[in-house]
Every structure is written in structure tokens, then in C-alpha cells.
Design brief:
Blueprint: H1 4-14, E1 29-38, E2 44-54, H2 60-68, E3 74-76, E4 84-88, E5 91-94, E6 97-99, E7 102-110, E8 116-122, H3 123-129, E9 143-145, E10 148-151, E11 160-165, E12 171-178, E13 181-190
């Protein structure tokens, strides 16, 4: 046994240093979902779409980020912890942008024209690049979802995202509130695919 100790020490010295640290996270995530179901001839849910997100508390520092982005194209994280995720099993049109069925990671984009939009990034592409949500600013491409931005005197305490079903089964609204800011975009559901 004593003969093996120097050999073990040699392996420990020659082994490359580990620069990877694992960190487990447990957090509260919120989810908003719209689903369409049929009761006849038998009950089933053929179409649904949802957004899952971590809801950071509002801080005035977020307004500072928007002020710093004025006149520039800047992408910003949308939520906290893991990616804010849109998952749909049907094609959608949101704010006039066509979204094919599948998973998407969502980021905010402040434009040179000072509008704020949502960008849907192909989740598989982001996974292949091994990007985390804190790297939202380095993302490129994606589908720009134009949104109507308003600012009010009333503030929310934290990020709120709501998918609202319309009166017609193929319509709806995406609504976002964060601090004094709100974003809205109309949704059209392409139910037949």
C-alpha cells in the first residue's frame, strides 16, 4: 500500500486543475398558459402554448439599464435565473411575427428607435452554444416580436407575464408588466397545424 502513495501523489500533481464549479439552484418560477380543448368526440387538448419565467423584483436599476440603452440596439435579460421560455405546440403570430411550433428562449431588445420588443431565440440553437440567460446581451438573430410599450405611474413589485385568451379561439394577447413598464402584443393562433 505504501508503494502506491507516491503514485497517487504523482497523479494528483499531473491531473489538470478543475475550473468548473457546479451550483444547484432552486427557485420559484411562474407560468402562464393558454390551452384549447375539445370535449367531443372525446376529451383531449390539441393546442397549447405557455411561458415560464423567473420573476425578479422591480428595482430602479432596471430603469437605469433602459436609460443607458437609449439610442442603441441592446438585448437584455427577460426574467431571472433560467431562460424565460415560450413553448408552443402550434404556430403562432405574436405582434405580427410568425412563430413556428417549438421551444424558444425570450429576451428583451431595446432598439435604436427606443422601442422595446421581445425576441424569440431558437432554444435548440442557444443550447448548442451553451449560453445562459445572463448572456442575453451576446445573443444574435431570433424572431423580433414588436410590442406596444407604455410607462405608467403605477408600478408592479415584480415581473408579471400573462397570456390572455381572446374572445375568438384563435386570438389572444401577450401582456408584460414590470415596475412602471408594460408591453403588449396581439396573438393569433394557427389552430389547424
Amino acid at each position: 500500500m505504501i508503494r502506491f502513495i507516491p503514485l497517487l501523489l504523482l497523479f494528483a500533481i499531473l491531473a489538470p486543475a478543475q475550473d468548473v464549479t457546479a451550483r444547484a439552484q432552486t427557485g420559484d418560477f411562474k407560468m402562464t398558459r393558454v390551452l384549447f380543448f375539445k370535449r367531443k368526440p372525446k376529451f383531449h387538448i390539441p393546442v397549447q402554448y405557455s411561458i415560464t419565467y423567473g420573476a425578479p423584483a422591480w428595482r430602479s436599476a432596471f430603469d437605469d439599464q433602459l436609460a443607458a440603452a437609449k439610442g442603441k440596439n441592446v438585448r437584455l435579460r427577460f426574467g431571472k435565473d433560467f431562460w424565460t421560455t415560450l413553448d408552443t405546440n402550434t404556430d403562432l403570430t405574436i405582434g405580427g411575427a410568425k412563430i413556428k411550433a417549438g421551444p424558444y428562449y425570450l429576451v428583451l431588445e431595446h432598439t435604436k428607435g427606443n422601442s422595446i420588443n421581445i425576441v424569440a431565440l431558437n432554444a435548440n440553437d442557444i443550447r448548442d452554444k451553451k449560453l445562459d440567460a445572463f448572456q442575453s446581451g451576446s445573443t444574435t438573430g431570433g424572431i423580433v416580436i414588436p410590442c406596444k410599450h407604455k410607462k405608467s405611474d403605477k408600478e408592479t413589485d415584480s415581473l408579471q407575464i400573462k397570456l390572455i385568451a381572446g374572445k375568438e379561439p384563435t386570438t389572444g394577447t401577450l401582456g408584460v408588466r414590470f415596475g412602471p413598464h408594460s408591453l403588449a402584443a396581439a396573438i393569433k393562433v394557427h389552430y389547424g397545424n
